[in-house]
Amino acid sequence: MSESLPERAEVQYYFGAGPAQLPKPVILQLSKDIVNYENQGIGIGEISHRSKTAQSIIDNTRENILKLLTNNGKYELDQLRRDYEVFFLQGGGTTGFSSIPLNLNSLKGKGGYLISGSWSLKSFQEAKRLGSDVVTLYNDKTENNAFKGCYKGDYSKLLEQEDDLKYVYICENETVNGIEYDATIKDLAKACRDKNVELIADLSSDVFSREIDIYDYGVIMAGAQKNIGIAGLTLYIAKKNLLDQIKANGVDSNLPIAFDWNLQNDNNSCYNTIPMVPLHTLNLVFQRLLANGGIKEQETINIEKADKLYSVLDKYSTESTEVEEKQRIVKFTVDKQFRSKMNVVFNLITLELENQFAKEAEANGFLAVKGHRSVGGIRVSLYNAVKLEAVEDLIKFFENFVNKL
Ligand SMILES: Cc1ncc(COP(=O)(O)O)c(C=O)c1O
């Protein structure tokens, strides 16, 4: 075993969908803190989660999340502290979506699911399997088992389908299918508000990649291992009065204690052992985001990365008139309106070409560009830590690949 840290390049060409790369300064600081945290002679993963040190990290992480959610001053920190609770549970996205119907079981009414890809579909199936009263309000799945996007109609009409909804569930960014809600999500939030229905969202693969208005949501949950950290932890941001309502009604007897939002929140996320290495990682990521100007700054970079990549893919798409026919090799299934800025998913015209591209990309150091095993194709994930330079170099590589055809 080595006694020193390995070298690592400034720009990584790693486009994996999760776990994903972290910013180099974060990973370096984390490595040091795993060995010896703040000169205490012991590492962050070795201390008690109930120690003063751990408690102050949990408090500070929560505070940094709320600061990020102020959207650079749009909301007062005190107002957010009053209205929302932030807590963490062991787990990831799956424990997150299983915990949702169980915690909301004590409220009267149905959960309405909008299915725009494989994660929202799984969440619905899980809620049903757990015996919760849930319905699909919209399902985008086509006969070919593909998904094209999100709902395009009038959300208030859509919600009228059911008169006893208590929540509407969405997955904001479908990691496998490359589908992300666009600005029309505000219409959904308004329709929910008008009907007094809580909007509950899985943000596992787009959390803090773009500014949101937290007041649009009843609960947000996100597994940590894509945009904000490493696997092992789920972040929850929940409206205080929703948690109070659940508490007043009493918890469902089927709710495992480790999933109990109020129990965890009342115990500063330490009812059971919170994994401190993932939690501290989150905080390092949040400190960096805040130091770099907050979510808006990051969003601007993310838009530039995605725009640059999609515009080159459009240039070489089967629909293009810009290039000669043999170079029209890119096929999109996702509707332009709902293209994800986090997971750019596309096909090449033949399976052979896709395999060749993935193989050559890998050989040239552009790692983890293969699509999810369930849908195939190519997937390039552009989470916060992926630098613009990495995307520009991938674009050059792609153009060279096409020019050789
Ligand atoms: C949007 C979304 N939700 C849920 C999950 C499930 O997360 P986990 O593997 O942490 O349970 C994933 C995993 O990729 C995801 O992308």
UniProtKB/TrEMBL annotation:
It comes from the Eukaryota. Keywords: Amino-acid biosynthesis, Aminotransferase, Pyridoxal phosphate, Serine biosynthesis, Transferase. One of its GO terms (biological process) is L-serine biosynthetic process. One of its GO terms (molecular function) is O-phospho-L-serine:2-oxoglutarate aminotransferase activity. It catalyses: 4-(phosphooxy)-L-threonine + 2-oxoglutarate = (R)-3-hydroxy-2-oxo-4-phosphooxybutanoate + L-glutamate; O-phospho-L-serine + 2-oxoglutarate = 3-phosphooxypyruvate + L-glutamate. Pathway: Amino-acid biosynthesis; L-serine biosynthesis; L-serine from 3-phospho-D-glycerate: step 2/3. InterPro entries: Aminotrans_V_dom, Aminotrans_V_PyrdxlP_BS, Pser_aminoTfrase, PyrdxlP-dep_Trfase, PyrdxlP-dep_Trfase_major, PyrdxlP-dep_Trfase_small. Pfam families: Aminotran_5 (PF00266). This is phosphoserine transaminase.
